[in-house]
């Protein structure tokens, strides 16, 4: 894991003793925090995003030149992009469902028909080999075409919205692989979900639209020039992630809340409205497409195609006596959920060891888990005894073919196999069976228990595979089975329907694992379409989250940490109050003069990987050293590329500056910027000068070196900075002490410098 | 209106011409922005809140002294307070309903009985005089006991959460008057609602609990000492406002979203969870109390007591053909809503003129509006012709007594008066009638039209009276009647039930007037208990908000501006990009030396109303003038009170400092702080010194004077500052140029200085 490198940072013996010598010593050391992270299944370099307004002359000129028309165009574009994100997310969400229902459905129809003819071995062969081929394809494209598409994508998107840019997560290739890979992975009967991949897909669409198309493949549109900054793209990606949840669960309000509660680090009212608009578009697109499919033109995609578990209100009356079992459900859900997170983290650690051995191992792992899953799904139902069909069943029993509550499997006519009803079905159908009301006697409690245990562990082992996969659906499935089990145990002591127990069980496990509150509550309400469940779901979620929070963090945060993504928390750790900014800022600091030699700039850019450099006016330009501002690496590279050189050290004339347009300096999207090594500078040019003043951000945010780390974090995180300049308390030989970046606020960096803080720490 | 004073600020002739002379001239002028605002119905002085971490030695010591136990105690207290806020808000919400239903219900029972005996004049007499007495009482207590309780309270609470402290809004007196006044105002059959007063009530409870009880009446608890800062109280008040909506509409999720979308200026995930917990408590308390009342122990409080309009799902099937009328509904709703806001603003302006004439006029106005309303409610139904009862009515027709769809009024047996069913009812019952399904033929379209017009205008005239009043319920009522009217017009062209049209009409008018999206959507869903309406409500809200936004702002923002509350917007106006911080900062600046004479401190505190003063170390203490930090007026007053004087100008020893505890400097709650004039300082002491260093915030946030106003606003608003120090670009005679406060960012102040910016401005 990338973070572990930090343990090697030299631990000062008595660090809180603020000896001046130590300070000097430390300042000459550089931050050893890792600048790479696992993105998808590969290790990639990561960059920070920059939400600061760069106030240099060019930016100001560009702003002044914008008239009413451009501002209107900008606003219009914002809404159009949200609209397009909604349309695409809706279409892809629907297409995803359609494909899964048809691929998986076809598989089950063929196997079921073989079972009817009692060709069990052949049925297993077809079943297992289909799953094998499908997951093989999924892991092959993920591994070799777009490793960034592996996994859920939530940690990467969440980190992006926090200001961490992993270039490949939003590429066109990732998008395509994510869509196709998710469809195949879900179709392969693995215990993986489609919700999180759809969130990543939605964000990816938003990012691609926001940067005007794919840069790599040259499909770009010019009319998007006002979106060339990280702030606008961040907003759009937030809307995209909301659209993803809306598309996967047909839960528009839930999607907005999910984006707000789980994904976004910065949020404002206007964004709420835009994401609401986006999810409304998704809902309308889905509604329209489902209406079309209801006329039967979509193959095996039935009315139940889009996950939507109608639990009608009849079963939702409850009394005060039902509260204790519900609370117990919450407590157990919290424990199971936090244990789920714990196990998942261990498994992911093991997987990452395996992955380091080579690509072949990844594919091998995916295929063997698939084979094992096929064996479980096909083998375990044989353990169950056949049960006679209930006389008052609301539907055909046994059902022959794809979906339905009562699977025939190997049973004689008039009987059904309750375990097959759960295992030998798509995950969505299994959830629907568990949630269905009036089926209290359908399942034997041993069957439910076997299903729960299998689900719990297979869900954990299936997540980390080299294929797009989500946790939402498996966790709902596991939680629903555990809820139903509790319902069976309660027996006649409770008036609640077992379908309702299943819903509450799903809520408790979701709360224990994902730790969201309002958004999960609304998603579950929209999923079950029953508002009367609200108080119970609220109670269960609060209890399970509280219980689980005493053990560990939410699952996405755990994975994010495991991946080494430098996520910036909103709250400061207690030890940050005791350290000042001066204590952690590291050197050596690279500065430029206001008018700097080209050679120096080239050398510094080649020697360091920094992205911002203080510009200092030295005497004789000014009376004393004065901080002129901060210049960005990206802007310096543009200057070098455009050869904005002066033969003598003088200030640039305004005529000279006309060769640049603000657009030259705009950031065109996430991804690798121009490399310094690709720029040719002749030896002659090396001795020329660049006047950095017009290109310098003349008013960077600064803090004084005596400020506590906690207080500076509030500024850094609140405003969304990439660089924070530290200035000395008293006028000094230098007007700037150092630069703080995201990595300087990472607990592992600070605790590496001051190990004695650890004992004072503790969570929260 | 207070703002108008700013128009007198001297308009520089060519302000954007950055002449140095002009700059000096302006810096010697002071900010003329008003420091008072309308709070409730009276003009009060307002202060800013301070969310900055004050890093002086005392604060640091206090933090270091906190062990694990104190931190746990703090967290435990936070949750306990949320729990208590939920309990109290739920109880008060329920009690409010109970009282209204019984007072208003009794009134209608008595009048209806008189009507049955054909004693019409006596009935009118009882009806009008009850209304008159009740509103008289309400306006008397509001005017003479707690003027801050007048109106909805939403603008004041919203401003508080933005950092504006109006002392009296959260006092115990205001709380009591708000509760009693709201009950009486709603019972008086005026077109006012209870939702917003309940939000104010919830916030008030939260604030009182957060400061450990009422300071004025000495009911305070000591165990709350960690809550002695504005940040924690802000969080609690946010939870309180969520609890208010949850209590009034039994909409826990809607309450959370309302607090987030409309009320809060700062928000983070942890707060979402806390407010969700609070509203969950409210929901459970309400459920429990309603269960108790269902056994009939609550007088006239029936099952319908808590506003909850069950629109069952049967009526919620719709087709693509129903979309156009729904869109039209949205467009008209947007226009009507923005016109509502426009008219309301005019009426409030007129009212404030009247109010300036004296208290008697306030009460006179309330009483005359009440009389006029009584005349309308009793008189207009006589215009309607009696209609024969439908044969298939689901309930008794005509209903005799309080609630029910078919009011008898003056009609012969077997007939009902459709206009009386709307007018001669509580507002809640009228809404329930309008929302009810299967009653398409109940109302004549002329009746609905008459009701709509009356409602629309009476709602506008009733809001600004000197009594607690809300807009939510009257807007729902008006919108529902307009929606039903559209439904009648559509006739057989639409398959939608007219009850559904009423819901959508209410949504459109709410969207057009309040301009919320997600929160209104969820509140309406929780209110109507029908999730299938979601896509339609979303569509209507989006359309009506979009249409209305082209005309004016949302109603609360309009009222807030009218009241002169200095609300700090999150986004910067375009002209703020063209002005630098140095352009707007005003003087004269009052600074202190690190070791200052008592006389100077006393004189400065008496001469100015500033709340923060830069502390500068001059030679010989340092080599050159150095900014030591910022000292707060409140802390200076503590020092003067505690007589922390030194006979010679020297640095304080640590022994000397032991006489203070961090608790001395804690801010104990909103409200007036100690006045400088109450502190006795002898002539002898006047010549002594105070060492300000240990009490100075040594690391205030600073910006450089060349930073654009827009960029500094991001810092100021993002971090929630009260004072922002402006430092010079180059080392200078003074290390600080000035201090920016909230008032310096107000558009009226900036546009007063630079009137030419106005033309470049425009909304958004």
From TrEMBL, chains A, B:
Stretches that traverse the bilayer: 76-99, 120-150, 170-192, 272-293, 327-343, 363-384, 443-464, 471-493, 531-548
Topological relation to the membrane, as annotated: Multi-pass membrane protein
CC terms in the record's Gene Ontology section: chloride channel complex
Domain CBS: 695-756
Entry's localization field: Membrane
Superkingdom of the organism of origin: Eukaryota
GO molecular function: voltage-gated chloride channel activity
Gene3D superfamilies recorded: CBS-domain, Clc chloride channel
Keywords: CBS domain, Chloride, Chloride channel, Ion channel, Ion transport, Membrane, Repeat, Transmembrane, Transmembrane helix, Transport, Voltage-gated channel
UniProt cross-references to SMART domains, sorted A to Z: CBS
Family, per entry: Belongs to the chloride channel (TC 2.A.49) family.
PANTHER family the record matches: CHLORIDE CHANNEL PROTEIN CLC FAMILY MEMBER, CHLORIDE CHANNEL-LIKE PROTEIN CLC-G-RELATED
Name of protein: Chloride channel protein
Organism, as annotated: Nelumbo nucifera
């Amino acid at each position: 894991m990338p973070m572990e490198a930090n343990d090697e940072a030299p631990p000062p013996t008595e660090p809180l003793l603020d000896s001046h010598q130590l300070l000097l010593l430390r300042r000459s050391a550089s931050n050893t925090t890792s600048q790479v992270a696992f993105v998808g299944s590969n290790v990639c370099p990561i960059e920070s995003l920059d939400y600061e307004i760069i106030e240099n002359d060019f930016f100001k000129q560009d702003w002044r030149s914008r008239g009413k028309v451009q501002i209107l165009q900008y606003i219009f574009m914002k809404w159009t992009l949200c609209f397009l994100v909604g349309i695409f997310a809706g279409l892809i969400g629907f297409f995803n469902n359609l494909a899964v229902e048809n691929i998986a459905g076809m598989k089950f129809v063929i196997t079921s028909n073989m079972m009817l003819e009692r060709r069990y071995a052949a049925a297993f062969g077809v079943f297992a080999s289909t799953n094998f081929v499908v997951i093989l394809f999924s892991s092959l494209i993920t591994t070799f075409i777009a490793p960034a598409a592996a996994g859920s994508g939530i940690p990467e998107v969440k980190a992006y919205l926090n200001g961490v840019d992993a270039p490949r997560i939003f590429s066109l290739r990732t998008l395509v692989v994510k869509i196709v890979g998710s469809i195949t992975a879900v179709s392969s009967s693995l215990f993986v979900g489609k919700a999180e991949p759809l969130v990543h897909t939605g964000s990816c669409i938003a990012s691609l639209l926001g940067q005007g198309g794919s840069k790599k493949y040259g499909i770009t549109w010019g009319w998007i020039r006002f979106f060339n900054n990280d702030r606008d793209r961040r907003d759009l990606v937030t809307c995209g992630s909301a659209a993803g949840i809306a598309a996967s669960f047909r839960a528009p309000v839930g999607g907005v809340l999910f984006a707000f509660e789980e994904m976004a680090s910065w949020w404002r009212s206007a964004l709420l409205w835009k994401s609401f608009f986006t999810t409304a578009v998704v809902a309308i697109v889905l509604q329209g497409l489902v209406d079309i499919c209801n006329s039967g033109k979509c193959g095996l995609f039935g009315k139940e195609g889009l996950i939507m578990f109608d639990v009608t209100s009849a079963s939702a009356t409850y009394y005060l006596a039902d509260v204790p079992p519900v609370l117990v459900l919450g407590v157990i859900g919290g424990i199971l959920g936090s244990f789920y997170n714990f196990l998942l983290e261990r498994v992911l650690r093991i997987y990452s060891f395996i992955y380091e051995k080579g690509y072949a191992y990844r594919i091998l792992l995916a295929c063997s888990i698939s084979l094992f899953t096929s064996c479980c799904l096909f083998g375990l139902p044989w353990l169950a005894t056949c049960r006679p069909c209930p006389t008052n069943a609301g539907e055909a029993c046994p059902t022959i073919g794809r979906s339905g509550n009562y699977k025939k499997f190997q049973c004689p006519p008039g009987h059904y196999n309750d375990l097959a009803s759960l295992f030998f079905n798509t995950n969505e159908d299994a959830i629907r069976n568990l949630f269905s009301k009036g089926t209290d006697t359908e399942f034997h409690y041993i069957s439910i228990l076997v299903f729960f245990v299998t689900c719990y562990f297979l869900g954990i082992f299936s997540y980390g595979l080299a294929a797009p996969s989500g946790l939402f659906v498996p966790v709902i499935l596991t939680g629903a089975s555990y809820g139903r089990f509790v319902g069976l145990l309660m027996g006649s002591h409770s008036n609640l329907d077992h379908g309702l127990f299943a819903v509450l069980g799903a809520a408790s496990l979701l709360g224990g694992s994902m730790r969201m509150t309002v958004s999960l509550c609304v998603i579950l309400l929209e999923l079950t379409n029953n508002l009367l469940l609200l108080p119970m779901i609220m109670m269960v979620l609060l209890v399970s989250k509280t219980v689980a929070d005493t053990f560990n963090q939410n699952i996405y945060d755990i994975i994010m940490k495991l991946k080494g993504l430098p996520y910036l928390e909103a709250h400061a750790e207690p030890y940050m109050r005791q350290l000042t900014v001066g204590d952690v800022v590291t050197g050596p600091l690279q500065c430029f003069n206001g008018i700097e030699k080209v050679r120096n700039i080239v050398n510094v850019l080649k020697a360091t990987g920094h992205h911002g450099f203080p510009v200092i006016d030295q005497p004789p330009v000014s009376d004393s050293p004065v901080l002129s501002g901060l210049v960005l690496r990206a802007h310096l590279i543009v200057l070098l590329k455009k050869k904005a050189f002066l033969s003598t050290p003088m200030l640039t004339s305004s005529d000279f500056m006309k060769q640049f347009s603000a657009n030259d300096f705009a950031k065109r999207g996430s991804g690798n910027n121009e490399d310094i090594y690709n720029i040719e500078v002749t030896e002659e040019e090396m001795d020329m000068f660049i006047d950095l003043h017009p290109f310098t951000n003349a008013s960077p945010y600064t803090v004084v070196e005596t400020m506590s780390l906690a207080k500076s974090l509030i500024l850094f995180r609140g405003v969304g900075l990439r660089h924070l300049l530290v200035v000395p308390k008293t006028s000094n030989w230098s007007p700037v002490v150092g630069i703080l970046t995201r990595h300087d606020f990472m607990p592992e960096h600070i605790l590496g410098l001051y190990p004695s803080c650890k004992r004072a720490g503790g969570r929260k």
